[in-house]
């Protein structure tokens, strides 16, 4: 039992424990999503992951076959290329989750320990920690709602269109071949001629749509959880630094310094390293997708609903990640300011040297690196998008 637990009454203690228990539900959400992929670090299921990966890559291969067949006819189908790029991005995210699975396991173990009351010295410190948990849960809920809505609309719309077109043709008694509309461009091994065969093929692709949604939500949920949790840890740490008591000697201050180093070295650096490849995939694929979609929309003059949907999804993801990065920047500045605002002038000389080292370290803000491109940010995304539009314009002139 720490000082905080001994100072509060039983009623307040129970409420604080309930708040922490409610905040820890975010870990349960991550666990459920990763379990569906066989990638929960504490109990990985290799067979489930391999089955999911093989199933997804098989359909990705069918999409690639369709793209190649169109190229052999000297037709560049932009819609198939957009879909191939989007599904390739999803499969890369699945493989990256597997690659860094052990690192995520260590991070989740550290996060679980942070939801214990003994880690906090005061009620205000606890509130500052929970302050960053609430927006994370809100963003994840909105992410689930948007992903479900877009997924249902994207899957159901072509099927309903086909149904109403065939119904209209039958009522008109026209002797014409009714078209079949698809939500994907996968290669079909035989020609679809009847509505029953079409329905069977369409329903058979439903698990693929579900798996796509699970992978997408799992990676986004993981990024939001890690980012907002680290922001909460740093917010609580900044409050403790400001209010450190030097009357008890330098032991309490050294404990705060150790906590600062643990958060930065063990947690922050692991998050940066494990998410670097994922951020690189996000920014490159989102830039290319939005570039092609916007360009195709400008050529057609009209805004296609499917194109708008494909443009909104990467844009939504970039916005969410940028929100987390802004939290990082603000809380990193708060930690740096806390070192300046604490009563460092009452310290012993050896402790003053120690605080200088931590001041220097806190000047480097925590960031999400996008591989070798630099720090993930809206500015970097704008630069990559601008370059992509330039290359696409040059390519169009060459083709002409």
Features:
mainly alpha, 14 helices, 400 residues
Describe the global form: elongated
The percent of residues in helical segments reads over 70%
Largest sheet: none
The total of helices stands at: 14
Strand content: under 5%
Label the structural class: mainly alpha
Query: Radius of gyration from the CA trace?
Result: 26 Å
How many distinct folded domains?
Answer: 1
GO molecular function: odorant binding; olfactory receptor activity
Main location: membrane
Membrane topology: Multi-pass membrane protein
Subcellular location: Cell membrane
Describe the structure.
The protein has 400 residues and is mainly alpha-helical. It has one domain. The protein is 78% helix and 0% strand. The protein has 14 helices and no strands. The protein has helices at 3-7, 10-23, 25-36, 46-72, 78-99, 101-114, 123-131, 133-172, 195-204, 206-242, 251-300, 305-341, 349-362, 378-399. InterPro entries: 7tm6_olfct_rcpt (IPR004117). Belongs to the insect chemoreceptor superfamily. Heteromeric odorant receptor channel (TC 1.A.69) family.
């Amino acid at each position: 039992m720490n000082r905080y637990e001994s100072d509060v009454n039983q009623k307040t203690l129970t409420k604080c424990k309930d708040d922490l228990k409610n905040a820890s539900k975010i870990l349960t959400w991550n666990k459920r999503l990763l379990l569906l992929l066989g990638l929960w670090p504490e109990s990985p299921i290799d067979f489930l992951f391999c089955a999911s990966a093989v199933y997804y890559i098989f359909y990705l291969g069918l999409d690639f076959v369709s793209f190649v067949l169109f190229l052999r006819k000297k037709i560049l189908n932009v819609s198939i290329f957009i879909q191939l790029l989007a599904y390739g991005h999803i499969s890369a995210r699945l493989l990256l989750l597997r690659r860094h699975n052990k690192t995520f396991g260590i991070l989740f173990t550290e996060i679980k320990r942070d939801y214990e009351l003994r880690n906090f010295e005061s009620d205000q410190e606890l509130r500052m920690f929970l302050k960053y948990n609430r927006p994370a849960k809100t963003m994840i809920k909105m992410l689930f709602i948007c992903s479900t809505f877009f997924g249902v609309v994207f899957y159901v719309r072509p099927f309903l269109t086909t149904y109403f077109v065939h119904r209209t043709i039958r009522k008109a008694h026209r002797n014409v071949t009714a078209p079949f509309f698809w939500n994907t461009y996968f290669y079909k091994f035989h020609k679809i001629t009847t509505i029953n065969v079409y329905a069977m093929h369409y329903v058979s692709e439903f698990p693929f749509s579900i798996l796509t949604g699970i992978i997408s939500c799992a990676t986004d949920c993981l990024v939001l959880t890690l980012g907002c949790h680290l922001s909460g840890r740093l917010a609580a740490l900044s409050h403790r630094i400001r209010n450190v008591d030097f009357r008890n000697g330098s032991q309490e201050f050294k404990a705060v310094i150790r906590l600062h180093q643990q958060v930065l070295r063990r947690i922050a650096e692991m998050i940066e390293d494990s998410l670097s490849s994922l951020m690189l995939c996000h920014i490159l694929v989102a830039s290319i997708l939005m570039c092609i979609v916007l360009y195709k929309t400008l050529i057609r003059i009209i805004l296609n609903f499917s194109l708008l949907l494909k443009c909104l999804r990467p844009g939504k993801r970039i916005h969410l990640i940028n929100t987390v990065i802004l939290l990082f920047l603000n809380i990193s500045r708060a930690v740096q300011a806390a070192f300046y605002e604490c009563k460092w002038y009452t310290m012993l000389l050896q402790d003053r040297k120690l605080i200088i080292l931590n001041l220097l370290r806190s000047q480097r803000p925590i960031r999400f690196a996008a591989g070798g491109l630099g720090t993930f940010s809206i500015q970097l995304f704008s630069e990559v998008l601008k370059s992509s539009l330039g290359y696409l314009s040059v390519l169009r002139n060459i083709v002409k």
